[in-house]
Amino acid sequence: MAMSVAVPFPTSQPAGYAWLDGEPEFSPDLHLQLEAPSTIVQLADLGYSAEEIASKATPVAASSPFRVLSDEGAAIMLETARRLQAFVKPAGDRIENMVRGGCYRSRWLRDLCTSSHVTEHLSAIYGIPVASHPMPLHLGHLNYSPSRIEVGIDKWHHDTLPLDFVMSVTDPATVAGGRFEYFVGTKHEAAELAAAGLTPPPERTVAPDFGGPGWAIALHGDMVVHRAGPLDELCERISMVNGYVALDTSRDEQSRSVDLMAIDDHDVLFTEWAKMAAWRSAGRLNDLVETLPFADRALVIERLEHAIADAQNAIDQMRTGKDSIDHYGG
Known about the structure:
Blueprint: H1 28-31, E1 40-42, H2 50-54, E2 60-63, E3 66-67, H3 71-84, E4 89-91, E5 95-99, H4 107-113, H5 116-126, E6 130-132, E7 141-143, E8 154-157, E9 163-168, E10 180-183, H6 187-195, E11 205-206, E12 215-219, E13 226-228, E14 239-246, H7 266-291, H8 297-307, H9 309-320
Helix pairs in contact: 7-8, 7-9
């Protein structure tokens, strides 16, 4: 298995999914134009403590926008997103129109989202080895404009996965409003604001300028509170989110997979979730084999419980279930 892969993409499709016909073949040489971001914001800049940051995937919070796709790649991405729009559904009361599981329908999108070129680029930005997310439902997630102007595109939230990039699929210059924004603060502060019926104030938000379609911003999605702001007028506005994980399984898991029970196909979700939990537990168990010293019973039990915690948590959450997806309003 390649070092940049956590769990290989499935070789078969789930029931009910079929490949789009007539797609071009993904070509990194033709469709990518990877450029480095000019600036990087750290979690400490948002107000997180050294103790909070220590166990997380990376100390990086967000990058400035950077180019991912060439003009040709951006055109194919837009056409692919328009074709996949036939499969839109809501994410509870957070997003009216989204598509998940697109990488089980579009080979081009799958190959972009699992591209080793893109993964290596993200590793350089995050400063750690990363892999495309072990759960393909988190690959190539698409958000579309709402049907009514009074409905926001996406409310303030932190993501259900650790790391991701948010890409502008449509040309930002043609969209009235709908700006991507993130909060210069912690998710604990966002929760306090939400409890008081408030959302992040404009003076503490950043709305980066995307250079065009196919540009993206890298996020520490689990730690950075963000949203897609409201449109000023109804128009086509599409964004794509692609997920990543740290290859170091000693880092915190940083996912809220239980929230996905409210939005994703359970027959797909549970299998993907189990594979991710198994991958993380295997990494921690292997570390245990290599590093566990002769020690008293209490320490041995503690280390063993820690090694299998992700698998046990997944089992417990699958059994308990959840019928909503968390957000901070707005």
